[in-house]
Protein 1
Amino acid sequence: MMPQESKMTEKTTIAKYLIKSLQGLGIKHVFGVPGDYVLDFLDRVIENGLDFTGTCNELNAGYAADGYARAHGAGAAIVTYGVGGFSILNAVAGACAEQVPLIVISGAPHSRQKYSSALVHHLAGAYNLQLDVFKKLTVDAAVLDNPKTAAADIERVLANCLAYKKPVYFEIPVDAVDLECHARHNAATAAVQRRSEAEILAEAVKEAADMLNAAKNPVIIAGVEILRFQLAAQALKLVETVELPYATTISSKSVLPELHPQFIGVYQGAFSRDCVREQLEASDCALCLGVWMNDFNTGMFTSKLNQNHLINAHADNLQIKHHCYNNVWLGDFITALTPLLQPRSFIQSHPKNHFLPRRDYKPQAGKKITVRRFYERINNLLDDKMILVSDTGDCICAAPDLYIEEAENFIAQAYYLSIGFALPATLGVALARPDKRAVLLIGDGAFQMTAQELSTIIRKKRNPIIFVLNNQGYVIERMIHDGAYNDIQNWQYHKLPEAFGASGAGFKVQTEDELEKAVSIALAAKDACALIEINLGPTDCSDILAELGRKVRGMSK
Ligand SMILES: Cc1ncc(C[n+]2csc(CCOP(=O)(O)OP(=O)(O)O)c2C)c(N)n1
Ligand SMILES: [Mg+2]
């Protein structure tokens, strides 16, 4: 697992080497909140040319860095000890669950105080408590207090972050920031290769190829690991070489382009559109590439994919029917499998039916806006210059039906599902991808969790179009189990841009023509953010949410 060796070393400092290593990963923007234990490190960050974006709290810094990582490959957040470190934890848990390479850097008290057990501020218990907690949610962690080992620690921790696509943690005591250390010249932090065992790979590939070649109507399901491990080009090559129809899941929506003749739709078990479900469940061989079979991706475990017809490849192992192969790396499997498959004729194997969500949309003056009509309008708004970000709530239930033309233009925390993720994540996406315009769908409940970050979006002059779906509370919970606890204070959401310093960027929409007007102003103001508040009935929701509510209600009985 060690990066490539190089004997040339150069004199640097712990802080400078960590910053240079982040820059080596292509990171230009970092997020966080200052505090006395991290100020010297933040000075080095700024002096060495990283853009530090201060967020309103640490949780939001974590979400912003997560969004940046999803859009860019890796992201970093910088916090102070204790109060900052413990505040960011839910974002780290989300990155751990969703396999996102999020790098957390925390300042820490002077080493002398640690060794004398001085009762310094922000200490919640033992000095190593924060490190111990982070170790549970990260793939690797290091305290950078020893100049002899710091450079190697930095390289190892970052290499593991990228290899396993999991969060990592660094802690730097204030006295260690400027300690001199020797680091390898041009250390290739990213040079970690995941490998397969050749004989196991060959046997697995042969069995999979025989099964696929003998099948009458095979299909491919492209999963989220294709996205995380940057295997989309290889997966698309396989799909196009063999001309098989493919589907995705909500976690992997848009991992391959949806504007493609072989695309069937998003599969979610019984929640899928009929034409998607029928083709997948009638298939006599489904090749699943990096699919997470969790509750949300399988329509609350209603999926009826026959285990006897499944080839289920994950990052490091592969299951065919009822047996497993270990030490088979997904990238190697796809590359080795492609030439062994007999190409089908497109006419014979192309999807019998795609789910085509885009319909003509003509606004009707004075007509109250509904959930169904709103998403019809969104489907006519999205294009290949936009990245759609969705929070948890009815919007993620409606998302399978939204049409994302180009690959990798959809971002959501579709498994961990922490509400409020998407607004700060949009800040990260907007900084990582200035070439695209972010479009955010977020419920009023989720928005109230992390709303302050709208002010950072405005401060950083980003231009997302933010739709706040105001149904006066938690409609997803209302559909599952209603009670007064699902109602929230009805904010004047459209007034917030002005309160945060952006005049003319807020719109309140009650009718279809008001939506039209707001959208056209937002599109014309290409460089400014817009917040469009959509006023919906308290139980108006998507078909999928209505079905999910029935299912979850049934499960709890
Ligand atoms: C941090 C967090 N707390 C609580 C929940 C449980 N939860 C899931 S959806 C939801 C309501 C979301 O409301 P809103 O954002 O308004 O979307 P809507 O359901 O109304 O479309 C809640 C509270 C959660 N997923 N994450
Ligand atoms: Mg709501």
Note: The radius of gyration is 24 Å.
Protein 2
Amino acid sequence: MESQARVVIIGGGVVGCSILFHLVKHGWKDCVLLERNELTSGSSWHAAGQIHTISSDPNISRLQGYTIELYPELEKLSGQSVGHHQTGGFYVASNQTWYDYLKRERSKARYMGLDQEFISMKELADRHPLIDPSRYLAALWDPLDGDIDPSGVTYAYAKAAKKLGGSYHTHAQVIETNQRADGSWDVVTKEGTIHAEHIVNAGGLWAREVGHLSGLNLPVQPMEHHYLITETIPAIAEREERLPAGIDYEGNIYFRQEGQGMLLGTYEPKATPWMVRGTPNDFGHELLEPQLDHIAERLELGFERIPALAEAGIKDMINGPFTFGPDGNPMIGPVPGMKNYWAAVGVMAGFCQAGGVGKCLAEWMIDGEPEIDVWAMDIARFGDYASPDYGTIKSSENYERRFVMTFPNETLPKGRRMRTTALYDRLTQLGAVWGDGFGLEAALWYADGPEDAHEEPTFARSRAHDYVARECKAVREAVGITEIANFAKHSIRGPDARKFLDHVMAGRVPQPGRINLSPMLTHKGKLYGDLTIACLKDDDFMIFGSGAAQEMHRRWFESHMDGYDIRYANESRRYHGIGLSGPNARELLSRITRDDVSGDALKFRDIRRTFVGTVPAILTRLSFSGELGYEIYVEPEYQLKLYEEILANGEGLGLTHYGLRALMSLRLEKNWGAWTLEFRPDFTAAQSGLDVFINWDKDFIGKDAAQKERDAGPTIKLVTMTIDTDDIDVTLDEAILKDGECVGYVTSGGYAHHVQQSMALGYVPSDLAQGGTTFEVEINGEMYAARIVDEELYDPAGARMRA
Ligand SMILES: Cc1cc2nc3c(=O)[nH]c(=O)nc-3n(C[C@H](O)[C@H](O)[C@H](O)COP(=O)(O)OP(=O)(O)OC[C@H]3O[C@@H](n4cnc5c(N)ncnc54)[C@H](O)[C@@H]3O)c2cc1C
């Protein structure tokens, strides 16, 4: 065994082997994989081997497409058969809601370059004569889908990696991972120790145990899962052509041909987490006792929809465990707060996803960033609230909902109230309808009291529509109050704070008492943050940003601090706060502070430490609503007092609570984008329009790439459009078409209540990005006329915000 390596990958399942392959393929030859048993000894050997492209996140779908398209190359490179049957596959809908869902998926596929199309029920029956087409309304066909041999794929990655210069060792269990002072690792096995610059946890079923070796608690959970294989079915034996694969969402089943019979799997309504307290060390090539009663109901449904199954004998019933993460997506990337420690865990569809996971992780390690935005898989989307128990609860929920519809306005019930603020009970009593982000509850909108606080999940406008309209009206005409605990707050202090920020931020670093907006770029010029830099003193800065991305941004700041005399802290939970917005906001503020808050004394983008509502506070004049607005940050124990003072002093001003939905509506009529939607590493400063905030007179990370793009001009641009609709709005990822061709896609949108207009933001080719250009936007399969707005529909000069 080597004593030295650049990377040691722990775990020889499909994920670890793919990472090894991609690292050596991209040029890092001295990489070693260690496997405790034989390759595939975790969940990989007993997978059903079905492969498909559809996923909740478009970039994950894209990577699933990459994974599937890689199989022929992998087979050739390795000389190992992967048993790939590219039969094509279909997704069937047996009710209108699932049909709408499929239409939305097809819309996404248009711009992802995936070749999905609807086929008629007759075509469905022709392609899969065993299925009963009368049960279905629609079928979406994807030619990439099919099946593979799980062991073959895993060995193919390993063998191809070996041919390219990588190495792997079986029967080499990692028993310790000890970090040296320089951040490198001693990876200890009974056979020897490898000193490595980086380690990757690809421990699959043992991801938790491998994490514990380095003091890391991962919120992943193995779940029991069943599929059955039938005896020979004569109708299949007689066929020359292999049957296509299929997924029936409402029936909650997936199926494909296996030998001359069929394989049928299901996600049962009550999940069974496996080995909650830890995966045994001696578990290997074993299966679990089938629990037929768990899946009997689902199988019956499957037999109704594919009648030939009911007559076929069952040859094999498999119950095997595989690992889920809290939202069902993989957790990959550098672990925030740790040096040179990479995760590739919670990959629940390894044969659809491992290629993409390996590719992204290799790019991330070698180039410093993945080629595309991998936020939906980034381990940094969770924080320490994602405890092991949370992992079990949410993984179970995700397992149970694997084929259950989640609507765009739906929030999931499990693992809630992990983090709440001092106002939680008060706002609940008022009628707050809660959503959660980064484990923290935040009010989405306010109903008329707790009994009224409910909403039907839907693709169309919900009953919340009128309530949100009322909140928007109050902000535009009177004053709104909203909780802002969910914004991230990062502090950067010390003698080199300004120098450091000048380096990591592309924008202007403000003078004491002032605030500036700034993009933060990667080395390749991609957006890595749209942040608000506030200077309290010359060596004391606060950065406000996306609450969801707080660990991602922490990781970025911490990984660029070397050589600077600064201290960094994520102070998001040290400061909670309240926002006031609307023409009466100043009058209200003046009633609860002794400060002069007139327009000249507290200007737009000012910040100061002072006292508000009798408590110590950081007072800023900022607005994401496009109105005169203030954000008041206080330590959590002061928040209730501040809130009570505001309520007690709001008389006669039309003070109204508003939630996140209203805020997201108000920003639409100002053409403002938001992080994780318009602003994310898929786009650059010039494409998003955030280049207006760049300070070109200094050096900063990503400047070369940004300058090149400025000279050449961006190929796509962010635009804001009005959409002609009556009762439905865009949400995310709808295709934008010009003359029948897909030219872009929607990044967010909704109803702009004040201007009473359905709106969308999205990226289109630059030569089409002029005001007035018309498009069609596809919502649930229907085309709606869209038009780029010439200027902001509300207060284009920003006079009200700056008043
Ligand atoms: C019944 C069933 C059906 C499935 N069907 C499908 C399907 O149809 N399509 C699909 O895409 N996916 C399917 N899956 C999921 C798929 O199997 C997993 O996503 C995939 O196996 C995950 O791979 P992995 O490499 O992350 O984990 P694993 O396969 O668990 O690999 C982890 C490896 O790490 C090793 N290891 C652990 N600890 C150490 C240590 N300390 N030192 C060294 N090595 C260590 C283990 O021995 C193991 O080999 C199915 C899973 C099951 C159980």
Note: The chain has a mean pLDDT of 97.
Protein 3
Amino acid sequence: MATTEGFRADWAQKDFYDELGVKKDATTAEIKKAYRKLARANHPDSNPGDTAKHDKFKAVAEAYDVVGDPEKRKKYDEMRELYGSGGFRGGFGGGGGFNLDDLLRDRGGAGGAGGIGDMFGDLFSGFGRGRTQSQPRPQKGADAETTATIGFTDAIDGVTISLRLTSDAPCPDCSGTGGKPGTKPHICATCEGAGFVVSGVGGAFSLNETCPACHGRQLVYDEPCPTCHGSGRGSSARTIQARIPAGVKDGQRIRLRGKGGQGEGGGPAGDLFVTVKVTPHRLFGRKDDNLTLDVPVSFDEAALGADVKIPTLGGAPVTLKIPSGTPNGRTFRVRGRGAKKKDGTNGDLLATVQVQVPAVLNEQAREAVAAYRAASEGSTLRSGLFEQAQS
Ligand SMILES: [Zn+2]
Ligand SMILES: [Zn+2]
């Protein structure tokens, strides 16, 4: 039998309340209690070889899975009510098929119970074989799109954020049927329950259009739902928790499965795409899985060599060994002190030296630099400029 998320077409034939030995209006707590008792009594572990008890165990588990879940229970109750508590034996739902023999037999037999036979009698003249659900065919919900701004460190470590989303959800009062709660629908007279009408577009061409009377729902209500005025749609805002994985980059688009718009007719929810903006860090930059850092060093440190202590992101400082004669702009790699990678290891910290020229010198320093100039007289620093300019 066909299944869609949270919705099984064969529910209509099963009395889950009876299976659990509870009343139809039992509370969730009562249902849970009854289930536990039956599950314990029929558990395969305590009843080896007893297939009857195994079957009962499976049956109560299935029943509890549905009526123990308020969402599913609501759908189940609606389905049972609409299709008349087991009077109909054909398949419902996408792929479930539609057995004409069963249909005809039910018209003559159990059809009297709950008016279900009449309903399908009308349907029968509308189309031979096809969709028999009161709801639209199961359809995946729409994908949604949003942006989120996270901190630099959160981007590296991963973070769970709250996202507030506004979406078109089914009207909560009529569950998207568009009908006044508590009233029963009829087969749409305009499309005879097909959900679409055929409109001629000049001669040989014809076009299937969604039925304007039932909006493709196949069923109509005498009284529209007062909340949504029959549209079946309710705009709602919801807050979801989304896990942003470690190592996300600025501008990256992340797909969160099943966090988009709700599906229709029991179909799965769509996906949510989050474009992540990462707030820059005051000190560290990011280059793929590596972190970058500019390290100011003095001329003498670069010339003579030095041990320079530098910070790391979220860790202890490390000492950078600058060899003598280090040019401005040289980058040193500190292994394992970068961003977390997908494989669990870390990228590197890329420290780039920026040789600084002091804006002011004290008397002693000025004399020392003057002495340095005197000592390095005859430097050929710019000789290359002129040779290359001539050629
Ligand atoms: Zn219609
Ligand atoms: Zn409504």
Note: Residues 1-6, 85-135 have pLDDT under 50 and may be disordered.
